[in-house]
Amino acid sequence: MNFSDFPRMAARVLVRHPARSSLMLLAMSIGVAAVVVLTSLGESARRYVSDEFASLGTHLIMVSPGRTETSGVGPSMFAGDTPRDLTIADASAVARSPLLGDVAPMVMGQANVSWGGREREVPLIGTTAALRRIRHWTLAQGRFLPEGDPERDSGVCVIGAKVRQELFGPRRALGEWLKVGDRRCRVTGILAEEGRSIGLDVEEVVILPVAGVLALLNRPSLSRIMANARSHELMDRASDEIRAILKERHQREEDVTIVTQDALLATFDRILLALTYTVGGIAGISLLVAGILIMNVMLVSVSQRTSEIGLLKALGAPRDEILRLFLVEATGLSLAGAFLGLLLGILSRLAILRLYPVLPLTWPIWAILAALLTAFLVGLGFGVIPARRAAALDPVAALSHH
Amino acid sequence: MIKLRQIERNFEVGDQIVRALQQIDLDIGEGEYLSLMGPSGSGKSTLMHIVGLLDHPSAGTYELDGRDVTGLDDAAQAEVRRSKIGFVFQFFHLVPYLTAAENAELPLVLSGVDPAERRARVAEGLAALGLADRSEHRPDQLSGGQRQRVAIARAMVASPSVLLADEPTGNLDRSSGSEVIHLIEDLHTNRGLTLVVVTHDPEMGGRAKRQIHMIDGRIHEDNARDSA
Fold first, then answer.
1. How far apart (Å, rounded) are the C-alpha atoms in residues B184 and A170?
2. Do B196 and B162 meet the contact criterion of CB atoms below 8 Å apart?
3. CB within 8 Å: A2 and B114
4. Angle A5-15/A319-355 helices, nearest 10 degrees?
5. Phi-psi region of A380 (alpha: psi -120 to 50; beta: other; left: phi over 0)
């Protein structure tokens, strides 16, 4: 048989059994579409998170109180469970390092905020003017916290756009006095709406001087210190220096955890990549199901076409040509299903983009290739049993089969 | 051209051995017209399957055109079937989803003849059997006689030297049956085709010059041998 006659004969079989073929096409295309769409969503989530991190600035170092260790015997084992407080003075000492640009102490909590009889519970951030530069926040109106001694509470606050809307409605907020917990502060700025970063909806927060929030929440320790290394190359040295400064200040005790943004991003990246693979793998199960369906339908087809196979043998088709014919049929069908599935995937992508225009939906090329390859292998793999059964038929028995 | 020596064919049915063919010695010359007759179960179909290389004898040797084909492997046997043997069956065995032309084309496809030549030879073959205007019809759009003519066109398209016809009229009414048998006989007369017709119908078997009667897996009567 000519090479080109295999696909030609297979195509004829498939086209002239439309019900059977479309059933298998449907199963295969749904499987492929699922793999492509789900991995694409996973990959998009990964990109989204990376972009968010990048928006924080790439030289970021975060210092939190207490030492997190997953293994080994660290000094904190002997120091007991309560770490030393991370103080504003610590932050100021760190800020004197020439390796660091901006350094912002941060304390976070919740408090009731009220104005003119309206009250809401909102997340509070106590910090200094440096945080705005670290996080690249912009203001819709007014000014951010003033520069100056971080130990002093200047009695001002900056509010998120949503807080402004809910407390003040259409009225002017700038210059008004807010009641935050048992303290009062004057609104000097309103954050622009675009600021949304990981774990924090900037539209909903109230930002006050760090000293004020520590007093308000009655806390001895900062939640963390955020610092910017002067350059990406200085990150490691800067981390070491922060560790050394704080060790010096904490009675030679290493009791802080320092995380660089790179490390954090790498962790998230690994998690999300694993997630993408997992989701893709789960979708791959639907490809297997499609393969089993193909095998099933092909087995039925072989027994329905027994006398046809007997005839082909009588006409001089050797065993391996019969085998190849059925394999070409199964793989051809799988590949056709796969391409149909890609088309389905493209359509779903357009639909998703319509519903969620902000999602940076990408097509991982590896997922598309993997889906096509899997579809091909599934067709081949699950085609083998029916094809072998067809090839092994005894011509005399097959011819007398009705 | 066909030389069978001491052919045996045994089937195992449960724990019993059925001896379908016993001690068959048979020579068929080129261009001979021969009928194999006998009641059902006499072994005539089994003998035809062995001559057509669809079945292997349990013992004995088979020579075709001077070549021992008894022990050939599957691929080599298939090659012999493609090039030398044509089959016509009682139930036509047309592929239901293929048109008449596509059915008749199958042996050429299997032989790897290129498509342009295939079309020409199929058109010629169908025209010779009066089916030129039926080539795009599916089997279910054809009468029984037309179907068997498509099957004959298919059997002949690769120009075999032997035509094996197994009850070729068994599923046809009288008039299309006689039409079909005349077509086959014409092929024998005009092309010098070796023709073996398997039948239980004495009237049709009687048309052949050489008549072999089989009973219980043995050649009971062979008018060529008896007269010789």
1. 101
2. yes
3. yes
4. 60
5. alpha
Which residues face A209 on adjacent strands? A127
Tell if the CB–CB gap between B82 and A315 is shorter than 8 Å: yes
Q: What is the dihedral of CA A351, A354, A355, A361, to 10 degrees?
A: 80
CA–CA gap between residue B196 and residue B66 (Å, rounded) = 19
Complex ipTM: 0.93
Q: How many CB pairs under 8 A join A and B?
A: 73
Whether the predicted pLDDT of B186 surpasses 70 = yes
Domains of chain B in start order, with CATH, are: 2-227 (3.40.50.300)
Beta bridge partners of A61: A227, A260
pLDDT of residue A74: 47
When pLDDT is averaged across residues B178-196 and rounded to a whole number, the result is 93
Break chain A into its structural domains and give their ranges: 5-53+266-399, 85-249
Rg (CA), chain B: 18
Q: What is the pLDDT of residues A49-94, one digit of tens each?
A: 877 777 666 688 999 888 765 444 444 444 455 567 899 999 999 9
The verdict on a CB contact (< 8 Å) between B110 and A321 is: yes
Q: Which residues of B touch A310 (CB under 8 A)?
A: 93
| Low pLDDT (below 50) residues in chain A | 70-79
Find the largest Cα–Cα distance for chain B.
53
Would the CB atoms of B97 and A17 count as touching at under 8 Å? Answer: yes
